[in-house]
Sequence to fold (634 residues):
Amino acid sequence: MQSLTLGPIIYHWKPEERIDFYARIADEAPVETVYLGEVICSKRTPYFEKDYPDIIERLERGGKKVVLSSLTEVVLKRERDMLAAICETEDHEIEINNTAGLLDVAARPHRVGPLMNIYNEETMRYLANKGATHFSLPVELPATVVGEMAKAAKDFGVGIEVQVFGRASLAVSARCYHARAHQRTKDNCQFVCEEDPDGMPLKTVTGQSFLTINGIQTLSHSYINLIEEVVDMPSMGVTHFRLMPQQVDMVEVAKIFADRLSARIDGAEAKARLDELSMSAPFSNGFWHGKQGQRQFGPKVA
Amino acid sequence: MKRPELVCPAGTPAALRTAVEAGADAVYCGFQNATNARNFPGLNFTPEEMEASVAFAHKLGTKVLLAINTFPTAGRFDLWRDAVDMGARYGVDAFIVADIGVADYVKRTYPEIRLHLSVQAAASSPEAIRYYAREFGVKRVVLPRILTVPEIKQLAREIPCEIETFIFGNHGLMVEGRCSLTNYVTGLSTNMDGVCSPAADVHYDKQPDGSVTTRLADFTIDSFAPNEQAGYPTICKGRYNAPNRPDAYYAFEEPISLNLSGLLPALIEAGVDAFKIEGRQRSRAYVKSAVSAFRTAVDSILAGQEPQLADLLALTEGQKQTEGAFKTKKWR
Fold:
């Protein structure tokens, strides 16, 4: 069994935009699972968490499995409370993105998210023995390592998920770089990140597009795109393929990946259809090939 | 007043001797491979050097903490296991680890040896720290440099293990153990290879007008006027442009060093058990000056005197220093 998933919205999208987005996903996108929840900044949630019950209902009516994702940085009381609330949820699976979440979830099944440091089979074995059912691997892992992890995962009876589309999360911090760019601090940010629904671009002083700021998170400028490589993953033992929401037609992106995974189209056609969506950033697949993450290799990589 | 342990960097056997002789209560060091987060050419210890260095330190009453604090990738776990086994054989006083699999191996194999949680594990809440303490018997946590002194004081009441804080040296801005910036640009990973801004990818491009552009692999990190000193190109210390910042600005942090010498009494009072000086990649002269200065400062505080603080500004990055997050929440 292999399936597409939709990762959580990591940017600060407006509430009405989120509702519309998930309505279309529910009706049209060939994804099996949708991860829902604020992963980056605890200050944002009051804007849209009241809409979650309706969004969840809509997604589930559309046949999607909804998994609740938790915060990646957990320091303040507010953040600890948010995490505790998610860990107490009973009617949905949860995805843990900070070790703090592991303290109390051992008694129940849980997923381990891509912002946790799961780099080897021993760590996976330990967590699987304590109730982890599914691992979304860190984005920087190369195919060789993913292969070893997926082999072990089969023995442990757990799922393995790889991000195949969208910007790579490269770093998180306690400091908000969106606020800093606007000469504010995290506590008085005035939600300036809302102005950048696909993140705030950082260019080098020589004009190179380089990184993307999303609050406390630093992402790649490029979008990871493993449309060529994804067809090799099921035989490696990868069970799920994650699409990260960007400001592009995500329904169409999901359809292209679904067509490619079911071998209805070849790599060239898939690439051509993705190119038609005229995305605002170049593609990269370097991490998967064990090289510089920013690089884009063609189909015949040695 | 509790006597905090002074934990000092030892990038080489010579630096280790220097730190021990300058009054370190403990030194931390690593092997010459990907098992430690300062895997730089010319640094770190061969097995023979580690064995001799542990013996030397112990003779003078100094503890040796072995950093095995990167994340083994699947299929390479043996290298980390071997590092732990060697450390145990040589009699190190504690392992500093970040990976759950490595922590589990230490706990199962050497339950009698102390386990310290590396800053690379980024345990920044009571729940995260309690998790590591409960699962692996972690005796001490090295805190990320993101908490204020009052927050540390509160935290100390909520966890069952000792606290170690950085007091001097490099001021990393990203959550440690969660940064793939170097790998995005160079193909070498901080978490997997122990590498940050590797020297082999560093370029200083001199322009016709005398200015210098610094690069890490393909990407420009900063640009310096002819009269400015060009800093080492580290991605999180570079200058960039954003849409509302047409003039280049330090998007993450300025090149600046952490110096908490003025906060030592407050940190002791908050319940900190150990003070860590960063800088395994720095020179022996740095180790000698920093360790001596903080030895004197800590001793004078414990003796109830005004802390005698030597001027450490010359040792800092860009000759600038900060108390960072420890001083104020506004840092965030």
